[in-house]
From TrEMBL:
Transmembrane segments: none annotated. It comes from the Bacteria. The chain holds residues 678 to 958 of 958 of the full protein. This is PAS domain S-box-containing protein/diguanylate cyclase (GGDEF) domain-containing protein. Residues 24-278 form the EAL domain.
Amino acid sequence: RAKAGGRNGYCFFAAEMTVEARTRMTLELSLRHALAREEFVLHYQPRIDLGTMAIVGMEALIRWNHPELGQVSPMQFIPIAEETGLIEAIGQWVLLEACMQTRRLMDWSGRPLCISVNLSARQLKCRDIVDQVRDALDRSGLPAPLLELELTESALIEDIEHSARLLKELKGLGIRLAVDDFGTGYSGLAYLRRFPLDVLKLDRSFVLQQDENDHNFDFIKAFVDMAHALKLSVVAEGVETSDTLQFLRNADCDEAQGYFLAKPLSLSDFEAYLSRLPRIA
Ligand code: C2E
Ligand code: MG
Ligand code: MG
Ligand code: MG
């Protein structure tokens, strides 16, 4: 690509790289202080039961309010946090903050809420991850079955033996374990039987692929049935239309998240969302 445009093309390419490299350096430098400067907040995306259409919980999604750049996407800074090792401290903060805020939201709303927290590959290798999770539960008083950890397939299969041992230990705390972004590659269901999992989260791209072709309904239905036979519950991510929602309900999918149902919300917007829902008995 650099050569295609001749000399000018090459210059353009080089300039682009410099901007990218500079942005990356700025992010990396400011990421080191972001925790101490309290620039992170958690947003919460509601997760809906497709049988009852009631909220069952939410996923914690980190947001970084950079003093100069504004809001930086986790897609941009989580990889940097991983490479630099900063993810260990940031991840620990996310765990505790998510458990504390969920406990408060439950007390305030009188509803049980299941909180999902994303763990990245590097956090799985962190020696005291089990202690971090136990500590977050102890300090927040959140019942263990209401905490779910989301791990990606790629992180799990990096070191299968280690993952299997670690997940068993985490499971021993009484929490729930989910595979995130399922369908974006790798293993398939058989592979995942080696881990004590509770939930499969179908990636948006996987769901959309099925949605576009009517004849694929049988495929996703069979997939959901197979997951159920393995005692896994199935959550669809990224539901943006009522058609997709209907499709998933017909396929017996258990739960869903997506802009059509609710966007990720700030804590105060999430509270407002909860207070607008019909009261529970
Ligand atoms: P993820 O865990 O798969 O989270 C789902 C992403 O899809 C979120 O992006 C969410 O805002 C977005 N989303 C939700 N509904 C829809 C929809 O209907 N349509 C579309 N197009 N997108 C939807 P977000 O918040 O930008 O997070 C991106 C990724 O960053 C997450 O993917 C997760 O891998 C990572 N991440 C976010 N928060 C954390 C965290 O606290 N710790 C770690 N380690 N990773 C995190
Ligand atoms: Mg997730
Ligand atoms: Mg996901
Ligand atoms: Mg995803």
